[in-house]
Amino acid sequence: MASLHQFSVIKGSKVLMVGAGGIGCELLKTLALSGFQDIHIIDMDTIEVSNLNRQFLFRQSHVGQSKARVARDAVLKFRPEISITPYHANVKDPNFDVDFYKQFNVVLNGLDNLDARRHVNRLCLAADVPLVESGTTGFLGQVTVHVKGKTECYECQPKPAPKTYPVCTITSTPSKFVHCIVWAKELLFAKLFGDKNQENDLNVRSGDAASSSNHVEDVFERRNDEDIDQYGRRIYDHVFGYNIEMALSNEETWKNRNRPKPIYIRDSLHDEPTQQNGNVEKNGGTNDPSSVSAMASLGMKNPQDIWSLKENSKIFLEALKLFFLKREKEVGNLTFDKDDQLAVEFVTAAANIRASSFGIPLHSLFEAKGIAGNIVHAVATTNAIIAGLIVIEAIKVLQNDTKRYRMTYCLEHPSRKMLLMPVEPFEPNKSCYVCSETPLLLEINTHRSKLSEIIEKIVKPKLGMSAPIIMHGAEVLYETGDDLDEDLLASYAAVVDKVLSELNSPITGGSMLTVSDLYQELRCSINIKHREEFDEEKEPDGMVLSGWSQASVENDGNKSVDHNAGSTSESLTVETGKDSEEEIVPGKKRKLYEVSEDVTPSDAQEVRANKKLEVLDEDDDIVMLDGEDFGISKKKIQSQQP
Amino acid sequence: MDGEELTEQETALYDRQIRVWGADAQRRLSKAHILVYGLKGTVAEFCKNIVLAGVGSLTLVDDRVATEESLAANFLIPPDENVYGGKTLAELCCDSLKDFNPMVRVLVEKGDLLSFGVDFYSKFDVVVVCCSSLATKKLINAKCRKLSKRLAFYAVDCKDSCGEIFVDLQLHRYSKKKLEETIECELNYPSFEEAISVPWRTLPRRASKVYFAMRVLERFEEADGCKPGEISADDLPSVLKLKKELCESQSLSESHIPDGLLERLVTNGREFPPVCAIIGGILGQEVIKAISGKGDPLKNFFFFDAMDGKGVIEDVSSSNTGS
Lengths: 642, 323
Known about the structure:
The complex is a heterodimer. By secondary structure, chain A is an alpha/beta fold. Helices cover 31% and strands 15% of the residues of chain A. In chain A, the strands form four sheets. In chain A, strands 3-2-1-4-5-6-8-9 form an eight-stranded mixed β-sheet, sandwiched between helices. A six-stranded mixed β-sheet of chain A has the order 12-11-13-14-10-15. Chain A is globular, with a radius of gyration of 27 Å. Chain B is built from 13 helices and ten strands. Chain B has an eight-stranded mixed β-sheet with strand order 3-2-1-4-5-6-9-10, sandwiched between helices. A two-stranded antiparallel ribbon of chain B has the order 7-8. In chain B, helix 3 (41-53) crosses helix 13. In chain B, 53% of the residues are buried. At the A-B interface, helix 2, helix 3, helix 15, strand 8 and strand 9 of A face helix 1, helix 2, helix 3, helix 13 and strand 10 of B. Strand 9 of chain A pairs antiparallel with strand 10 of chain B, so a sheet runs across the interface.
């Protein structure tokens, strides 16, 4: 492998690394050791304590500094002669344009989110630079190769959507702990400490208010004569007691479900004095609002403990009180942050009390924090292995050794004796709207919908374009940019606010729009098809885009609560033999089928007609790949232990 | 499990990995003592992984002085001769590793590994030897097995694009999750000597070719008296001759050990850094599994070859052959 030819290929190459985190640290080290001499690295993040267990180029003293710069300095200590260029910047920054990408021989991704991955994929396609993509979660990982025209692009396959839950599951019928967490974080926490004007599905009416029709009082408003303890207890009784009673009165809901039990403060804290709760003064030592903790005031230390209902109730009241006493300035514009100790304490306690009501097992703060913050399970070893595999793939790309490109899965449990499983890459998806020129189809009511709806519901979220330019024939309908003059902006604003069929050149059935992005060099066409009616439940956008692939989302209601919008998973769609769906992103990539060793190719072909068989080497190793209906069936790799 | 709780500092530092293996495993890790011998690139990778994971202590044994070759795949040693001059590999790596995690004790033990007595080994829970001769592997493994306590033994090697891990956990009891249940399991491992004595013809037809190639090289080094890793292109004809003899005596078709594979391993025996990262990563994971008693450990060989990209487990033990 380390032949002379290969060495010269490495030495003369210029590579771009995107991400200097878990995979990035390992990758930069392995690239440097392997003889790469010109490496550029982009990362917008700064170093945090929870990075130090695996991002080995960083030390305690580096906390708060740029990952890209510190990583560079650390690697230069053992390879001072090479050139590493760090960028402490967002990869979506317009400076990193197509011309920037064109200077590199290969781009290596060690990213933690879908949005950035899509962005880099598009720029690599536009600049015609090969991309090696990667991801890890716990002991699982994968490396894939994307070379324009030769293998599929990163977006040829459906990608998992952020997990969402129907609103009614969250507000009325939780059955899992995660539902309680979403309720505590997205509804209760947001209502109490976030923007008061934001729409919220929490029931805010008290019994009295509902009866007097001309006076609707929001029970979350603190009354003038009310001290903070009284307020906390009133909120507690309202959300865990009164609201549950209200829900119980709807008999229909509970026909096939366990009835929840209302919880009032007088029951959960019955043997406690009514006023005094925690000792706020234990927090008195510092004035730093970020170190305020209800656990500290109550003398509770271990985040792994599962608190009793009584302890949760105390934490709930104490955390609420601390927000109003110690962090009053922030109340009204807080959003949940997993690194905000007090917020995590409040959400843990609230979720646990709600879980008690619904007979759902309680969880520790440590576990609740992981669920609420979508914290990715991460270890150094998997990142090191994946980084090694990325470098091997990068070298093949530099050698233009197309036949030996592989996607490799790193598994937790061996499959056909393999822990590292190579698979031949797929060909480009001919109907991929990103790497082919296949037009998309948008069904929409052209007599009712406006261009602004297409932008907000389709172009930005689904096509992942943040700076779109929309054209109808030769006419520019809409564009964004810093250098546009005010008149132009005003005219665009007027256009996007008009109904499609009433534009100067009307958009009707049969029209074609061209959408491109200022920074991604991606252009795609959308054919418009007029449709009168949409199903509010199933088609909540009021328009349907097809030819665009996103995995179907588990969602039985028309409205849903985003659990991990903007998720920061280091994971890609990882294939596993795991039985738990919770930890693994749903809507996976094409399934790999295991063929047991005694199945001959012809048998296998019969078993699954229409599928393509790949013979990887002269051995009778057969990995059967699902060629057509990707992402639909949910077969798993079967573990085979000898 | 009883024992002290993790400190706040530990919980903050190890947050992401506790989410993978649990607080209980983290506590066991913090009480484990590891010994490594042979500080080449693969072991440097392993040491980094295990120090980051938060073991109790790591003891390094390697009295060789640093040379340019020993720096090639080792990111723990600065290439400045003013820094590395005069120090042993163990001392140099120790300085760097200490820095990775202040909660782990990293120590150097001077002297010849083979001369250490049973008392010395009894201080450890895990022993890893790298790039060692056949005799060394057998002897250290045998010493580990003589102790009254159970000690995990690993032997690793990386040459060119290939890597090998051998595992001996003796009688290993562990738990694993199956669906919602936790089940208790037990595995019985052969020693290195027992494993390599398993007749080749009884191994599965598709057993890894790297396994056979590594055994040929091991035997060649032993017969020739050359140190591990000192084999060179000049030795290729003799190595190929030995392969032929071994295949004949073991009744194994010669096609199981391609000449091309032996040629690669002989002419370019240097470590290839990406393979070091992969083998060091798998080894780190396996040691964590062995210490925590959680999850299926591999039994008892692992091979990776960058040429085909496969990372394969082979069970080479007499009780398991012919199946």
